[in-house]
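Summary of Year 1 activities. Much of the first year was spent building the evaluation harness for sequence design. The harness presents a backbone, in tokenized form, and records the residue chosen at every position. We chose the following record to illustrate the format because it has been used consistently in internal testing since the harness was completed.
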């Protein structure tokens, strides 16, 4: 089984991926941020480095999804292949950070890759407001993230909502603003109860988190 964790920058995807892997004994796949050779350059000059950064992310996620496709383990992944494309690449193209030529080349490559791998059996979407994202970004203190504009985060949020509304598979939307699942066990239990209900039918799908679409 393949579980994807989706959400904007600062929504808590990586933390939730780690905690779910520990809780259920699943195998985690984390997004390559710490070791991405383009990330700091990207935030200093987005138009110059967008194609390089997005192509690097695409290659890394494709490797991960190939491993997921071939694995018999239950795997939980921090940000999916499609999410990176339909949110971040689409946003960079709309903002003029990717040329028409680079975008078409990138999408041709993505479509070939997407035809070779599986989609998540369940996508968990951490839905967060811009103020919540800003607070989380400031809290973790990555220098290259501190210059992101509110409009940039707002634009990404709008794309997330549009993308989630058109996803074909099973989606579990978690309203993250009022939750501190890292520090409050009861909040984490709210999430695992929702997951148990979706995957195993063990609990009623109710509570402070938003109901499934």
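For this record, the design step produced the sequence shown next.
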């Amino acid at each position: 089984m393949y579980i994807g964790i989706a959400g904007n920058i600062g929504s808590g995807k990586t933390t939730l991926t780690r905690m779910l892997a520990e809780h259920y004994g699943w195998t985690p796949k984390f997004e390559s941020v710490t070791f991405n050779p383009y990330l700091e350059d990207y935030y200093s000059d987005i138009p110059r480095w967008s194609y390089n950064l997005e192509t690097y992310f695409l290659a890394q996620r494709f490797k991960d999804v190939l491993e997921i496709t071939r694995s018999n383990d239950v795997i939980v992944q921090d940000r999916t292949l499609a999410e990176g494309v339909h949110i971040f690449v689409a946003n960079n193209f709309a903002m003029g950070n990717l040329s028409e030529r680079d975008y078409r080349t990138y999408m041709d490559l993505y479509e070939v890759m997407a035809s070779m791998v599986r989609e998540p059996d369940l996508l968990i979407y951490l839905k967060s407001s811009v103020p919540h994202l800003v607070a989380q970004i400031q809290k973790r203190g990555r220098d290259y993230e501190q210059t992101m504009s509110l409009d940039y985060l707002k634009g990404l949020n709008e794309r997330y909502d549009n993308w989630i509304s058109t996803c074909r598979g099973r989606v579990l939307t978690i309203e993250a603003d009022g939750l501190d699942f890292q520090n409050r066990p009861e909040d984490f239990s709210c999430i695992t109860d929702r997951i148990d209900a979706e995957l195993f039918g063990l609990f009623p799908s109710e509570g402070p988190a938003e109901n499934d679409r």
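The chain is about 55% helix and 10% strand. Quantitative recovery figures across the full test set are reported in Table 2.
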